[in-house]
């Protein structure tokens, strides 16, 4: 496992990083729910389709989808990739933040991304020529949040993109956003909006800017730094009369 400020690439160079309890539990849950959900979907008509992220369903108050969509993958290939990337990045972050904080980050980022994706989906459909809201599934939003967190906390860390190309964490964020943009155009606005929501949650959770008092403090600080205008009997400090 590489230390936080290491320049060694994250990938298969030294073997798979050790995964903690939370990472293992998330991977197992993703596998089991996806497998069982696919079986029940074919047998009973209830399963992965009732657990994935869908804007229309959320607007009909099917709010459980915000908690379930990170643990559903209907495609075997997507399931394999999701487990692999969750194991890699989850192990890295869990070793840095600890089991409890990593789990909180994963769940809050996933739910928050889903909440943000609802209005984003509608805006994207107005701005771009989409004809459907589409659906999204899997832990992609949490993984996007992890990438943004890595770019903010360890921007010079190397990541083996595709396990082949070494890239800086900041570059990976831009590459992933570009790939998700193409996928979103092809599949619907839900994938694109959930990606943007995940990246936004990564930024907000790492910087703490989700707290209203942070923005209020910045606004007050900006007001204090703003130059005063008007007629002064005594000039402000740092000014002269010439």
Order the strands across the largest sheet as they lie in space. Answer: 1-2
Helix content: 55-70%
Mean pLDDT: 79
- The fraction of residues in strands falls at under 5%
Question: How would you characterize the overall build of this protein?
Answer:
This protein is mainly α. The protein has a single domain, classed as Rhomboid-like (Rhomboid-like fold). It is built from nine helices and four strands; from the N terminus they run H-E-H-H-H-H-E-H-E-E-H-H-H. A hairpin with a 3-residue loop joins strand 3 (158-161) and strand 4 (165-168). Residues 1-9, 11-15 and 231-235 have low confidence and may be disordered.
How is this structure best summarized?
This protein is mostly helical and 242 residues long. It has one domain: Up-down Bundle (Rhomboid-like fold).
What keyword list fits this structure?
5% strand, two-stranded antiparallel ribbon, disordered N terminus, mainly alpha, 242 residues, Rhomboid-like fold, globular
Please write out the topology.
Layout: H1 21-44, E1 53-54, H2 55-59, H3 65-68, H4 76-97, H5 99-127, E2 135-136, H6 140-153, E3 158-161, E4 165-168, H7 169-187, H8 189-207, H9 212-225
Antiparallel strand pairs: 1-2, 3-4
Helix pairs in contact: 1-4, 4-5, 4-6, 5-6, 5-8, 6-7, 6-8, 7-8
């Amino acid at each position: 496992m590489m230390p936080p400020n290491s320049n060694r690439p994250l990938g298969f160079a030294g073997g798979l990083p050790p995964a903690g309890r939370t990472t293992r539990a998330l991977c197992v849950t993703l596998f089991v729910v996806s497998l069982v959900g696919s079986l029940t979907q074919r047998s009973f008509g209830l399963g992965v389709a009732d657990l994935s992220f869908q804007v229309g369903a959320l607007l009909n108050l099917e709010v459980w989808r915000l908690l379930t969509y990170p643990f559903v993958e209907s495609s075997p290939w997507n399931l394999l990739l999701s487990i692999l990337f969750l194991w890699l990045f989850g192990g890295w972050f869990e070793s840095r933040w600890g089991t409890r904080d990593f789990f909180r980050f994963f769940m809050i980022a996933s739910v928050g991304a889903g909440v943000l994706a609802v209005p984003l989906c509608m805006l994207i459909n107005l701005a771009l020529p989409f004809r459907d809201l589409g659906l999204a599934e899997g832990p992609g939003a949490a993984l996007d949040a992890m990438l943004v967190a890595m770019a903010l906390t360890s921007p010079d860390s190397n990541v083996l993109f595709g396990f082949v190309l070494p890239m800086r964490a900041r570059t990976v964020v831009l590459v992933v956003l570009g790939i998700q943009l193409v996928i979103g155009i092809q599949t619907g606005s839900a994938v694109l909006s959930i990606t943007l929501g995940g990246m936004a949650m990564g930024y907000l959770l790492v910087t703490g800017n989700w707290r209203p008092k942070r923005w209020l403090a910045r606004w007050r600080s900006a007001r204090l730094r703003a130059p005063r205008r008007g007629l002064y009997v005594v000039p402000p400090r740092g000014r002269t009369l010439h």
